[in-house]
Amino acid sequence: MRRILLYAALVLIAAVFIMPVYWLFSSAVKPSGEIYRYPLQWIPHHLHWSNFTNAWHDAPFGSFFVNSMIVTAVGTAIKMVLATGSAYAFTFLPFPFKRFIFLLLLGALMTPGTVTLLTNYLTASDLGWVDTYAGLIVPGAGSAFGMFLLRQQMLALPREVFEAARVDGASHLRILVRMVIPMSRPMMITVSLISVIEVWNDFIWPLIITTTTQMRTLPIGLLYLKSQEGYNDWGAIMAGTVMVAAPMLIVFLLAQRYIVAGFSGGAVKG
User: Fold this and answer.
1) Where are the alpha helices (DSSP H) in the chain?
2) Which residues span the membrane (predicted)?
């Protein structure tokens, strides 16, 4: 009986998260009349695939998609390089005020991103980065959370292996590239996925730093589609939302086993 109640609770909790996603995908292929119908129509009578083409043509989604791909790929790569290098330094290298600097970085985890919006914008404006890829990417290049996760993973690695490599003359760069990164693969994939989703879904900063349609990213593209004067095609809006969300859902489904392995491996030692 306890197991039955447990599974029933799990099914209810799963339904809370699954139903909005199902409603999004089903509404993306419904005509507008079925979306507004009451009582709710959960299964579309006719699949209205033209919602996707309408969304694509009613807003420059091609440009939005390219911008999101560039910003996500380059931004994630920079985040990973900086997070991996700083995590290695905090784990294996002695330097002055190491603990104090690490505590400062932990403090960044507790600071809301909105606190630095004005400072980042003024800095980017002074550098001439408004409405540029540099302005979209560079201010968010640091990842204190990613550094913290990778450091926790590296603390769990056997020190004897790296000490033996140092005795054999291996440099820190060679140890990092040839040993630490391969041994930390699950956590590296986890941090990469978190960074990809964070950059892909970012809304506030791209909205502030871009001024032209040609530099907008996909989340801003949805706002552009919905805010057009007199535009009320909710089927196309839902289809546009699916185009924004689907890539990250696919990435998550393909990499979810690495997330579990990464967090369980990084939790071995604090």
Assistant:
1) 2-27, 32-36, 50-58, 61-92, 98-109, 117-126, 133-137, 144-155, 159-167, 172-175, 181-183, 185-201, 204-209, 218-226, 234-266
2) 5-25, 70-93, 100-121, 133-150, 237-259
Nearest to 217 by CA among 157, 136, 163: 136
DSSP 228: S
Query: What's the rounded mean pLDDT across residues 217-241?
Result: 81
Distance CA 57, CA 217 (A): 16
DSSP state of 158: -
Hey, what are 198's tokens?
């964070």
Tens digits of residue pLDDT in 162-213: 888 888 888 888 889 889 999 888 888 889 988 998 999 999 999 999 988 8
**Rounded CA separation 48/26 (Å):** 10
| Contact indicator for 89, 97 with CB cutoff of 8 Å | no
216-249 burial, b if ≥16 CB within 10 A, otherwise e? Answer: bbbbbbbebbbeeeeeebbbbbbbbbbbbbebee
Say what angle helices 2-27 and 234-266 make with each other, to 10 degrees.
140
Token match 């507008």: residue? 32
**CB–CB of 197/252 below 8 Å?**
yes
Task: Return the structure tokens found at 73.
Answer: 């790929």
